[in-house]
Amino acid sequence: MFRRPEPRLQTSGETISLWVKGRQLWQIDRREVLKVEIYKVDLITLDDIRCDIRFGDPASMSIVTFSEDHPDWKLLQDWLQILPGFDTNWPHRVVKPAFVENRTVVYQAPRRSHEP
Questions:
Q1: Separation in Å, CA 94 to CA 7, 14, 37, 84, 85
Q2: Beta strands 15-20 and 23-29: pairing type?
Q3: Nearest to 54 by CA among 37, 40, 67
Q4: 93 phi and psi angles, rounded to 5 deg
Q5: CA–CA gap between residue 14 and residue 1 (Å, rounded)
Q6: String of b and e for 4-18 (b: at least 16 CB within 10 Å)?
Q7: How far is CA 105 from CA 21, 26, 48, 99, in A?
Q8: What is this structure's pTM?
Q9: Are strands 62-67 and 104-108 parallel, antiparallel or unpaired?
Q10: How high is the pLDDT of residue 96?
């Protein structure tokens, strides 16, 4: 049976990176994080909590999405919680009520003076 290699997260100080088969696919520096949103996807028989991280230059930002099913979900959450002002009470706003996405902004970077 073929098994796809599981992408793994690694943290090092201010950065988090995604690796597959010993190859780094991307890296995010904490200072590049612009916005983090956590929300729920209704899959009929169960819900999946997802996390979108927007990072990079505001004019051409990138977005990565993680599912709570990823084996490194806890590592990701621990890394994100160090962001200043990160909302650690997000589970109360995302989990209930049922059948609603409940998209919640848990971190928003302060506006930089050179941004419009």
A1: 25, 27, 10, 20, 18
A2: antiparallel
A3: 37
A4: -95, -20
A5: 38
A6: eeeeebeeeeeebeb
A7: 32, 23, 17, 19
A8: 0.87
A9: unpaired
A10: 87
For residue 40, what are its two tokens?
A: 């729920």
Compute how many other C-beta atoms are within 10 angstroms of the C-beta atom of residue 43: 8
Q: Which two tokens stand for residue 49?
A: 């909590």
Report the candidate in 67, 80, 97 with the shortest Cα–Cα distance to residue 35: 80
Cβ atoms of 35 and 58 within 8 Å: the answer is no
Q: Which of 58, 68, 12 is nearest to 34 (CA)?
A: 58
Q: Which residue has the tokens 């949103």?
A: 37
Edge-first strand order for the sheet with 62-67 is 62-67, 47-55, 33-42, 104-108
Could you read off the pLDDT of 42-91 as tens digits, one per residue?
888 889 999 999 999 888 889 999 999 999 999 999 999 999 999 999 99
Whole-angstrom distance, CA of residue 110 vs CA of residue 77: 20
